[in-house]
From TrEMBL:
Residues 28-112 form the Bifunctional inhibitor/plant lipid transfer protein/seed storage helical domain. The lineage of its organism: Eukaryota, Viridiplantae, Streptophyta, Embryophyta, Tracheophyta. This is Non-specific lipid-transfer protein. Belongs to the plant LTP family. SMART domains: AAI. One of its GO terms (molecular function) is lipid binding. It comes from the Eukaryota. It comes from Arabidopsis lyrata subsp. lyrata (Lyre-leaved rock-cress).
Amino acid sequence: MAFAPKIITCLIVLTIYMASPTESTIQCGTVTSTLAQCVNYLTNSGPLPSECCVGVKSLYQMAQTTPDRKQVCECLKATGKEIKGLNTDLVASLPTTCGVSVPYPISFSTNCDSISTAV
């Protein structure tokens, strides 16, 4: 009988571990710091630094779940609205410029709730 509680505990832990995440593990601060090297380029104030594309690729690798991708989308939209002189054409083309294929448009009008990993 002492064995049964251990099995139940293991099953609970396994169920929690195997459940798909419903909340993002990525914070907006991570998104903005990861892409901070891109700001001058995206405001027509300088060339595209290699560190920017490193950040774009890193962020893409971090955002592998639907909640993470939605969170990154919301963070990008909120942060982008705070940056004066942002060139939206450069923003939209940044993933492609950095060699990353994003299956949804990068735009202030993107519906972040429609983003998923099933594309």
